[in-house]
Amino acid sequence: MFQKWKDRIDVTDIVMWLIGLTLLSLVLWGSISTLRAGLYTGRHWVDFLIFGLAQGSIYALIATGYTMVYGVLKMINFAHGEVFMSGPFTAYFVAIALWQSDFLDNYPIIGLMIIFLSSMAVSTTIAYFLEKIAYRPLRGAPRLIPLITAIGASFFLQYLFLGLYGSGIQAYPDMEILTGFWMVAGVRILRIQVVVIIASVLLMVALYSFIMLTRVGKAIRAVSEDKEAAALMGISVDGMISTTFVIGGMAAGAAGVLYALMYKQVYFFMGFIPGLKAFTAAVLGGIGNIPGAMLGGLFLGLIESVGPSLFLDGLGIVAPYQLKDAIAFTMLVMVLIFRPTGIMGERLSAKKA
Amino acid sequence: MTLAQSLWREGIKTGAIGGISVLAISLVGMVESFNKRDIIADFLSMGIAFIMVFGIILPYIAAKRTTRPEKHIIFLNALTAGLVTAVFPALLVILGNIINLRSMFVNASPVLYNLLTSGVEGVGGILILLLAGILCGAFAGLLFFLPGLIRSVIIVCLTSILAVGIVQDLIRPLFSSWGIMEVVSEWLFTQNGLTIAGTIFIPIFVGAIYMFWQLKGEGIKTRYNTLESGTQKSVKMSSFFVLAIFLIFLPHILGLFLSEVLTIVGLYILLGLGLNIVVGYAGLLDLGYVAFYAIGAYIAAILTSPAIGAFTLTFWQALPFAVMGGIFAGILLGIPVLKMRGDYLAIATLGFGEIIRILVLSDFLKPWLGGAQGIAKIPNPAIFGWQLSTPQEIYYLILLGCILVVFISVRLRDSRLGRAWMAMREDEDVAQAMGINLVSTKLLAFATGAGFSALSGAIMVSKIGSVYPHSFNVFISINIVCLIIVGGIGSIPGVIVGAAALVGLPELLREFADYRMLVYGAVLVGMMLLRPEGLWPEARHKMELHGEENGSDETQTATAA
């Protein structure tokens, strides 16, 4: 009996469960002691929540790009963060031009539309050519090769934009309609955060209905199920892969402007960390699964915003906010260890991850 | 119209690629910053030479890709490609003179326009630019029609002018330190660029050697191969001996600056050989490799630095702790990722690397690790009271480390463990079915790689004397992955070649250093597209990537037989 039990359990499994349990108990202990110490009031928590949702919806938009590309190509498009950066970085110059000509003040909605469209156009172009030049010739190559190409493309794009636009951190011009706050039931809610949440939800709904309801969306889903069968059904596989990159690029371009409006900064390296976070979000939701990526993004945004104060303050850690990225990456690793299929996904469980 | 399109399609398409490339290198500022250096004194600057390389290579590709057999069409396609390549920068100059592009593109300066039009104002300058494009295209077209040997000799000669012109700042001090050679140096070089004599002599010299090797090289190789195995061995041993002597005296030949570069390359060779075990042998793509470098560096720093004050060991006493710490961390971080493969493993390890860096940087661990300020006052290592402080002295320490690590790598590769790693790389499931214990094999790969990395980290801090969290960002990991891949994945000489090419060259050419990551990215993508096996590939890996072609050849011959 004991022998049988011993055979089934692996030493490494025990170590992993121990690590998991330690982290979980640390999180619980930290949360309880933070709440008991009462460092933050309810208003603080609402602030954290809304900020988390806003940040999370941006991650969610980027994550859809990762997840869709993974669906059709079974590769991590490491350069997606740079697709996300290229749009708003270019649109910054459009925004400045509009602002200098007072257009942005007189017609703020149209002005914002122009900024969004130019950002999406640039991101889409970059995503399209990225696929065409760097990934298309590598269909059927060993798995490591497209991944390394993607890493190379990521650095190439980062430093291309550094060279083109300079290394300075730029800020989008302030806009009247996006500054200030609303009072809802005695809670102060920043206007920009509400705009970000609403805009991303609209975009995500549009994207999801495109994938689920249109013919092209159906074709994309078919390609991600089975390339050969899709080709036999008369679907242009290469065309659908390009379309996937285009849609991912559009979502990333829009997310980029939202990010730039919220954080007030654009620079060449801005895509790297959000890109990794969005990837984390995609994995959280089960990679290849679009609603999963959206939920994963929101969840990650919340954890990142609430986590440092909730988990770490109670443990007596100085300046917990510095460790918010560490929380996100720890969560990534934990998800990959304990539930590589993500919260929503079951599809990948049998395949090689 | 359609006929014209099909006739000139290659020329226009390839030319457009060339034009966009030239536009990109101009707008990122490469042309302007390279222009400070002359290849040929007062005649050809590096920036212009760089554009010309594009202007010649792309028309050549256009000629090669043209499917029509008629010679004049091939030639005209090359010409078109050259012209189209020049049209893009010409448009940039025209546009830049009408509106101010500088508020968007920081490098779109009048200096750049001046450079592109060779200083001629107005329409004349544009015409010169277009004419230059056509000439480059014509040259490429002519080159295409030359017989193979002559063509490759011309290419080698031109490349030698470029190469010597680029590294002249390094060659000149070498020559001048050797008395008699100074005359030669003065004859070949000016303060900035080659002299006319140098421009003529160097390509002839290099071209002659190349011709000789092309014509006689096969003979020499076969003669070596027909030697008795005992004689072959002694030839090998004596070349090792010459190499050893050369390596011992190298820093004194090279001088201070080059020795410094050499030590940096050496540290990367150590790192590269460590990661080569993980990525190259065991096939586990680890993007958080810098974590172990940081762990080794920090352990050595804490144990030796009086600034922290807890311990004041010597370098040699701290070294085993650093290496053991690295190995331990390798196992610890290896356990969670045991079951991951491919992409997931890469991302998880990247996450680990970032977590370690964020932790080291945080205020939370500042009392022990120094936070963003790092740890300073780390003593240099000493051997029997001889303080190794200059790069020339540290070089020997690094050389020792490299020899040790190369030796361990070679022995491991040929061992049972090495074969198990490679079996695991090819297919984990099959390897497991063959009785390989995946857990211990993977952990041993992580541990060995981490140990080498920690060794490199410990040497690095004792060389520099301080350590900062900012020196351990994800770029170091990417750098190391790049150098392994460029050199040839899984190949030990490949790591050395890769480190020299990717770390040494940018250190030597300060102009390049600003564009290092840009060039890395392009090189990685290009390498994966054109030559995925690397510069100095491991035989087995090369076979794997090109196996299908050979395999189909064999089947063809088999069916023919």
Break the fold down into its secondary structure elements and pairings:
The complex is a heterodimer of chains A (353) and B (561).
Chain A lengths: L1 H7 L2 H27 L4 H32 L6 H21 L2 H4 L1 H28 L8 H22 L15 E4 L2 E4 H23 L1 H11 L1 H6 L4 H27 L8 H13 L5 H23 L11 H15 L15
Antiparallel strand pairs in A: 1-2
Helix pairs in contact in A: 2-13, 3-8, 3-9, 3-11, 3-12, 3-13, 4-6, 4-7, 4-11, 4-12, 6-11, 8-9, 8-11, 9-11, 12-13, 12-14, 13-14
Chain B lengths: L1 H26 L2 H5 L3 E3 L3 E2 H20 L5 H28 L11 H7 L5 H24 L2 H29 L4 H8 L7 H31 L2 H53 L8 H15 L10 H20 L7 H20 L4 H4 L12 E2 L2 E2 L3 H23 L2 H11 L1 H6 L4 H27 L9 H14 L4 H17 L1 H4 L2 H15 L8 H22 L1
Antiparallel strand pairs in B: 1-2, 3-4
Helix pairs in contact in B: 1-3, 1-4, 3-4, 3-6, 4-6, 7-8, 7-9, 10-15, 10-18, 10-19, 10-20, 11-12, 11-13, 11-18, 12-18, 15-18, 16-18, 19-20, 19-22
Describe the structure.
- The complex is a heterodimer of chains A (353) and B (561).
- Chain A contains 14 helices and 2 strands.
- With 353 residues, chain A is mainly α.
- Chain A has a two-stranded antiparallel sheet.
- The longest helix of chain A is centred in the N-terminal third of the chain and has 32 residues, at 42-73.
- Chain A is globular.
- Chain B is mainly alpha-helical and 561 residues long.
- Chain B has 3 domains: 1-145; 148-226, no CATH class; 241-541, ABC transporter involved in vitamin B12 uptake, BtuC.
- In chain B, the strands form 2 sheets. Chain B has a two-stranded antiparallel ribbon. In chain B, strands 3-4 form a two-stranded antiparallel sheet.
- In chain B, helix 7 (148-176) packs across helix 8 (181-188), helix 10 (229-281) packs across helix 18 (438-464) and helix 19 packs across helix 20 (492-508).
- Chain B is globular and about 70 Å long.
- Mean pLDDT of chain B is 80; it is low at 548-561.
- At the A-B interface, helix 2, helix 7, helix 12 and helix 14 of A face helix 13, helix 19 and helix 22 of B.
